[in-house]
Amino acid sequence: MPLRTAQSQPKKTDFRAAQNLARQKSFEKKAKNYKLPLGELAIFTQQIASLLVAGLPLVQCLEALQDQTEDGVFRIIIRDVRIDISSGNSFSASVKKFPRAFNSLFISMVEAGEASGALAEILGKVAAYFEATVKLTKKVKSAMTYPIAVIALAIVLVNVLLIFVIPVFAAMFADFGAKLPMPTQMLIDSSNFLKHNFHWVALGVFAVWWSGKKLISTPKGRRVKDQFLVRAPIFGSLVHKIALSRFCRTYATLIRSGVPILRTLEIVAGASGKVQIEDACTEIARHVSQGGQVSEVLAVNPFFPPMMKHMVKAGETTGNVDGMMNKIADFYDVECEATVASLTSLIEPLLIVFLGVIVGGIVMAMFLPIFQLGAVAGGLQ
Question: Phi/psi at 176 (nearest 5 deg)?
Fold first, then answer.
C-alpha cells in the first residue's frame, strides 16, 4: 500500500504541473488582446505610483505588483512589461505593446512622466482621474440597474402570463359560447399568437438587437445614437453632463501633466465616447494649430453650455486652463450626482405605474368576462 501511495504522488504532481502549464499558456494567448477594466487599471496605477514615491525602482515595483495580482492574464502582462523594461526599453514603450490593457491616456501620461522625470507624480494624477471616472460610472450604473431589472421582470412576467396563464382562461371562456369583450379577445389572440410563434418572435427580437448593434457600430449609426442619447427626454441631461465632465477632466489631467495640446485633444477625442466631442476636438486642434484658442471654438459649438465657454476663456486669460477645466469637471460631477438622485426618485413611481398598467391591464382584461358572467353566459352580448 505505501508503494502505491508513493507512485501515485508523482502522478498527481505531474497532473497539476501540466494543468498549471496549460493555464499559463492560455493566459499568454489572451494577454495581447486583454482589455483591463478601468477600475483595475486605476488600482494598478495608484499602487505603482505609491511604490515609486516610496523609492522603489520601477522594475521592483512591477515585480511586487506581479506577485500580488490575482488576475492571471494581467499577471502575464505585468511580467512581460517588467522583462521588457529590464531589457532596456522604456516603460511607455513596454506598455504600448498592450494597447487594450493600457489605454491611450495611460500611455501618454507615462510618456509625459518619463520626459519630465516626474513619473510618480503624474501616475498619481492619472490614478485620481481613473478613480473619479470609475466612481461616477458606478453611480450611474447603480441608478440604471433598478429600472432595467424592473422592466426585464415585467417582460418575463407578461410572457409567462400570455403563454401559460391566459390559455387556461381562454379554455374556460370558450365554454361560454358567447362573444367576449374586445380587450379580453385581443389578449387571447395575443396569447395564441405568442404561444404558437414564440420561436419566431424570439428570432425577430434577436434580429432587431443584432441589426441595431451592427448599425450603431457604423460611423453614421453611432452619430445618430449619440445625438439621440444627448436629446433623450429623461436621461439626455445626464448623458450630456457626463460627457462634459469627462472632456474637462481628461483635458485638465493631460495638460497639467505636460502632454502637448494637439496630442491631448487626440486622446480626449478618443476617450470621450461621444461624436459631438470628437468633432469639437478635431475643430479645436485645427483652430489651435492656426494660432487660435480653445474658447473660440467652444463659443460657437452648441454642445458646450455658455457657463463652460466663459470659464475656459477666463482660464486662458489667467493662464490656468487646466485648473479651470478641473473646476468645471467638479461642477458637472456634482450635477451628475444630483441628476442621478433626482432620476432615481422619479423613476420609482413611474415604474410602479408602469407595472400597474401592464399587469393590472392584463388582469382586468381577463376578469372582465367574469364580471359580466351573467350576460355572457345568457348570450346577451
Answer: -70, -35
Sign of CA dihedral 3, 9, 10, 11: positive
Q: Nearest to residue 238, comparing CAs of 350, 141, 312?
A: 141
Report in angstroms the alpha-carbon separations of 347 from 154, 227, 234, 342. Answer: 15, 23, 10, 9
DSSP state of 178: S
Alpha-carbon distance values, 180 to 186, 190, 346 (Å): 10, 14, 38
Question: How many helices (H) does the chain have, and how many strands (E)?
Answer: 18, 0
CATH of domain 20-102: 1.20.81.30
Interior angle at CA 286, CA 281 and CA 288, nearest 5: 90
The Cα–Cα gap between 128 and 108 comes to 16
Task: Please list the pLDDT of the chain residue by residue as tens digits (381 residues).
Answer: 454 555 555 555 665 666 566 666 777 777 788 888 888 999 999 999 999 999 899 999 999 998 888 888 889 999 999 999 999 889 989 999 888 889 888 888 888 888 888 888 889 888 888 888 888 888 888 777 888 888 888 888 888 888 888 888 888 877 766 678 888 888 888 888 888 888 898 899 899 999 988 888 888 888 888 888 888 877 888 888 888 988 898 888 888 888 888 888 888 887 777 888 889 999 999 998 888 888 888 888 889 998 888 999 999 888 888 899 989 988 988 888 888 888 778 887 888 888 888 888 888 888 887 776 655 444 444
Place of cell 522583462: 83
How many Cα neighbours within 13 Å face the side chain of 315? Answer: 22
Per the CATH hierarchy, to which homologous superfamily does domain 128-381 belong?
Answer: Type II secretion system (T2SS), domain F (1.20.81.30)
Give which of 253, 252, 256 is closest to 311, Cα–Cα: 252
Break the chain into its structural domains and give their ranges: 20-102, 128-381
